[in-house]
Amino acid sequence: MKVERIAVVGAGAWGAALANVLALAGRKVTLCARDAAAVRRIAERRESMRLPGVTIDASIKVDCAPPGTKQDTVLLAVPAQNLREAAQALAWNLDRSTPVIACAKGIERGTHKFMTDVIAECAPKAVPAILSGPSFARDVATGLPTALTLAAADANLAAGLARALGSPAFRLYHSTDVRGVEIGGAAKNVLAIAAGIVAGRALGASAQAALITRGFAELFRFGEALGARPQTLSGLSGLGDLILTCSSSQSRNFSFGVAWGKGAPPDPATAPLAEGFFTAPALIEMAKAAGVEMPIASAVDDILARRAGIDEAIQALLMRPFRAET
Fold first, then answer.
1. DSSP-assigned states of every residue in 129-157
2. Chain region(s) in the chain for CATH 1.10.1040.10
3. Partner of 87 for a Cys bridge, out of 3, 46, 122, 146, CB 3.0 to 4.6 A?
4. From the candidates 2, 113, 188, 262, which is the catalytic residue?
5. Per CATH, is 179-318 categorized as 1.10.1040.10?
6. Which CATH superfamily is domain 5-176 in?
């Protein structure tokens, strides 16, 4: 398939990183920032405020207008809770059947919709897809090897997009399990906050390993209940992303949890974006509706909502009945 002209909506760290890796692969890329002031700043400095020290490739055009009809593909690299607004802004100007790829990992609060569902609702002409997996923006922007999953309902489209957007250092595996890819990305952010809390409380490497393993069991149960494929949940966008975000200070969700664990909860309005903070209540509401037990994610939700203290939540987890490992 022909994918030469690409618009990346969102000039934060992830948007800038994606624009860079696609430009270096020879694509004609437009990076769409929120307002004229941001456009001028990026155009002059060739740098995103959210990704300091990384030069935005000179070939990348920077604009504040929604992507036009001349784009072959659009990537929405905005926070999950802002994706609806971004999809609505570009919907009127899309050609029919234009792939619109969600690059956010989360569940919309209130509606319980995943990102591709939001795109389908707000931009009927678009063909929704999702890009997710273990990746840090700085690694991608600077050309370090990274592997992710790109999923779309149509197998040929998913494969074509993976070939068109991928490169040797940005390896994309394709899938038709859209829901599985989205579940892995959303749930792991909540579990990464839990891992950060454990690290912040200095509970040790053994506790960290146990949390990641049992957290993955929760993610897996939730995914199965919603029809995700096991191989997707145990792949890059599930287990792979969980391992990365639960073990590095580069993860904003992990760092957010560390601050909570140390007794200095950051203000979500001013701290670096931690998608798990916003996803946690929606995830737990959906899990309860599906009859899925997610004690670790539930504990995170209780802590973030201040319904329970950290020590109280940890004690409740430790006092759970002994059971067979599943």
1. EEEESS--HHHHHTT--EEEEEEESSHHH
2. 179-318
3. 122
4. 188
5. yes
6. NAD(P)-binding Rossmann-like Domain (3.40.50.720)
β-partners of residue 172 are 148
Token digits of residue 186: 């959303």
Give the alpha-carbon dihedral of 321, 322, 323, 326, to 10 degrees: 100
pLDDT tens for 187-218 read 999 999 999 999 999 999 999 999 999 999 99
Burial classification of residue 97, based on how many CB atoms lie within 10 Å of its CB (0-12 exposed, 13-18 middle, 19 or more buried): exposed
The pLDDT, as a whole number, for residue 25 is 87
Q: Is 61 a catalytic residue?
A: no
Every domain of the chain with CATH number 3.40.50.720 lies at 5-176
pTM, whole model, 2 decimals? 0.96
Q: Given phi > 0 = left and psi -120 to 50 = alpha, else beta, which region is 112?
A: left
DSSP designation for 294: -
